[in-house]
Amino acid sequence: MNTVASQDGTTIAYDKRGSGPALVLVDGALCSRAQGPMPELAELLASEFTVYNYDRRGRGDSGDAAEYDVEREIEDLAAVIKAAGGSAYVYGTSSGAALTLRAAAAGLPITRLVAFEPPYVVDQSRKQIPSTWAADMRALSDAGKPGEAVKYFMTKGIGLPGFVVGMMKLMPAWKGMKAVAHTLPYDAALLGPNCFGRPLDPEQWATIEAPALVVNGGKSPGWMRTSVKSLAGAVPGAKHEEVPGQNHMIKASAIAPVISGFLQ
């Protein structure tokens, strides 16, 4: 494990492996260096890139601050990129893709980026996310109910049926998800107004200069495929790719060649 200090002094932990151009991986909700898709993906990409896999603030071995602000997460990513040599490719998944896009728009030295399914909602084809979801999840976490915060996120945010979440509670990963439930409002903040069924405003990404690829799975829900295609039209010069047979829980073996093919 390595660490770097973010601009506000928060310690950000990361792993480094492989050789070649620097590539930073940015996790989605409830994931960390130890839990989620990135450890396997890092191993697959390490033969072509120097891969940096970090714990977003509030997760794993990284620190946190009393108050959250999206700008602090952008600064965290900037600190990891600086540790990687001053510029880097970046791959973000889910809310991590939203963070990657915001960081690129803020002018971070990202040379190329791949964004997989930031969970924006741009139409009325799915049950809408409550406008109060960030505050609701924060209240549950603050009340010492991390499991309820995760359930809220899974049902009202992702849209999973309650019985599916009930089965998830029996899985070993549930304990790890509860441990980082307090960071769910961070993910909601990163999505901002883009998840309430309205068309995307291209102005928020107008300053992105890095070549970008936005990706979705061919078996992901229709509302998500629609939002990714809308995003491809909103990010300047972005390319779009669909990975057949995959959904939001895309296999590392399926996304690795897509990332490699675009970045090389």
Describe the structure.
The protein has 264 residues and is an alpha/beta fold. Helices cover 39% and strands 17% of the residues. It contains ten helices and eight strands. It has helices at 38-45, 70-83, 95-105, 133-142, 146-158, 162-168, 173-179, 184-191, 222-234, 252-263; strands spanning 2-5, 11-18, 22-26, 50-54, 88-93, 110-116, 212-217, 239-243. The chain has an eight-stranded mixed β-sheet with strand order 1-2-4-3-5-6-7-8, sandwiched between helices. β5, α3 and β6 (110-116) form a beta-alpha-beta unit. α5 packs across α7.
Helix and strand string, N-terminal first? EEEHEHEHEHHHHHEHEH
Oligomer: single chain
Beta-strand portion reads 15-25%
- State the separation between the terminal residues, measured CA to CA: 27 Å
Global geometry: globular
Sheet with most strands: 8 strands, mixed
* Uncertain ranges: none
Based on secondary structure, the structural category is alpha/beta
Strand order of the largest sheet: 1-2-4-3-5-6-7-8
What's the number of extended β-strand segments? 8
Q: Count of DSSP helices?
A: 10
Rg = 17 Å
The amount of helix comes to 25-40%
On the 0-100 scale, what is the average pLDDT? Answer: 95
Structural features:
10 helices; 264 residues; alpha/beta; single chain
Give the helices and strands, then pairings.
Layout: E1 2-5, E2 11-18, E3 22-26, H1 38-45, E4 50-54, H2 70-83, E5 88-93, H3 95-105, E6 110-116, H4 133-142, H5 146-158, H6 162-168, H7 173-179, H8 184-191, E7 212-217, H9 222-234, E8 239-243, H10 252-263
Parallel strand pairs: 3-4, 3-5, 5-6, 6-7, 7-8
Antiparallel strand pairs: 1-2, 2-4
